[in-house]
């Protein structure tokens, strides 16, 4: 589908910039307005190659201004508009409610919040949406593999003890959504009692460096290690995915935007998707 316009909510944040640039590289049009958090400047500049866009930032302060910005974009671009959200865990549900009540297609990359409530609001509203805690192609493939393993071999790791450590930049507010998704598969494979609160989070420089993260990536990384040990300690499995920087996710977001715009255009009966659906559709670049 051509002529897609994306509204990048969460600019001028780290993912906001990465994703905007990926969308421009993909030939999508970046809307000159975006929703942001409190205390941000009036606008920001996104530059990719020879393209430079000044984006007006609409904060949550002025009542109704964020809704108005969405409604105006919807009026101007109709079904060619796709909203992208990489904001903050506390914004997941209010923003989801805003998108569904205005009736716009959206891609939610932000983690945290009440995921069940987000899914319910989205399914009930009938808007088209992609909701996923990780947009990196290979990590999505690992997630899909673990889901399949859990489906095909439930109990395969029964009696095993699980340990999960995830390290992210210290500004990350929540436990990794990706780690939670993988843990949910391991739980279905029968590991010993493991709660999401048992995920060990590293958020300080010293422990992150000891974990292997380089100085230059302390401000942007996502390192995950999942260790499964048999009851008698004689067998150990380890799964690891270490991402330094954020670029790998942004191409997946552009895939998600193109996928969901096409689903909306063809009036697909299924309306809510995750990244595994997109990987399975064979449209991740
Ligand atoms: N799905 C995926 O593949 C990935 C998901 N993520 C997730 O994306 C999210 C953002 O990460 P990152 O870019 O690193 O974070 P940043 O803190 O760099 O950026 C977040 C931005 O969102 C703004 N913001 C806060 N509240 C709102 C709101 N209500 N509406 C609009 N904007 C708001 C913040 O403004 P202010 O600072 O003023 O609050 C900030 O500019 C996190 O949840 C993270 O886990 C990250 C990488 C990959
Ligand atoms: O905040 C991040 O950086 C990331 N968040 C996502 C998560 O919570 O799993 C994806 C990735 O880990 C990067």
TrEMBL record:
Residue ranges constituting the Dihydrodipicolinate reductase N-terminal domain according to the UniProt record: 6-135
Pfam family, one: DapB_N
Gene Ontology biological-process entries: diaminopimelate biosynthetic process; lysine biosynthetic process via diaminopimelate
InterPro entries named among the record's database cross-references: DapB_C, DapB_N, DHDPR_bac, Dihydrodipicolinate_Rdtase_pln, NAD(P)-bd_dom_sf
Keyword NAD: yes
PANTHER family: 4-HYDROXY-TETRAHYDRODIPICOLINATE REDUCTASE 1, CHLOROPLASTIC-RELATED (PTHR20836:SF0), DIHYDRODIPICOLINATE REDUCTASE (PTHR20836)
NCBIfam families (alphabetical): dapB_plant
Protein name: 4-hydroxy-tetrahydrodipicolinate reductase
């Amino acid at each position: 589908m051509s002529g897609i316009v994306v509204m990048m909510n969460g600019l001028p944040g780290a993912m906001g910039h990465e994703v905007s640039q990926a969308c421009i590289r993909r030939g999508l049009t970046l809307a000159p307005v975006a929703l942001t958090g409190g205390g941000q400047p009036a606008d920001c500049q996104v530059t990719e190659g020879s393209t430079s866009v000044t984006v007006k930032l609409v904060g949550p302060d002025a009542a109704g201004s964020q809704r108005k910005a969405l409604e105006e974009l919807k009026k101007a671009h109709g079904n060619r508009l796709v909203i992208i959200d990489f904001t903050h865990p506390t914004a997941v549900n209010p923003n989801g409610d805003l998108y569904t009540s205005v009736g716009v297609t959206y891609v939610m990359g932000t983690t945290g919040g009440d995921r069940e409530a987000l899914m319910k609001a989205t399914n009930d509203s009938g808007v088209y949406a992609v909701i996923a805690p990780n947009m990196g192609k290979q990590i999505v493939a690992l997630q899909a593999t673990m889901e399949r393993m859990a489906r095909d071999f439930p109990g395969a790791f029964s009696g095993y003890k699980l340990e999960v450590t995830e390290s992210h930049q210290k500004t990350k507010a929540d436990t990794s959504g990706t780690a939670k998704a993988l843990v949910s598969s391991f739980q279905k494979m029968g590991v010993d009692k493991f709660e999401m609160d048992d995920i060990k989070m590293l958020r300080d420089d010293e422990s992150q460096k000891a974990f292997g993260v380089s100085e230059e990536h302390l401000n942007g990384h996502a390192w995950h290690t999942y260790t499964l040990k048999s009851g008698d300690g004689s067998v150990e499995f380890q799964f690891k995915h270490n991402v330094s920087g954020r670029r790998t996710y942004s191409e997946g977001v552009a895939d998600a935007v193109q996928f969901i715009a096409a689903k909306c255009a063809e009036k697909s009966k299924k309306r809510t998707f995750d990244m595994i659906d997109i990987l399975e559709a064979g449209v991740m670049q």
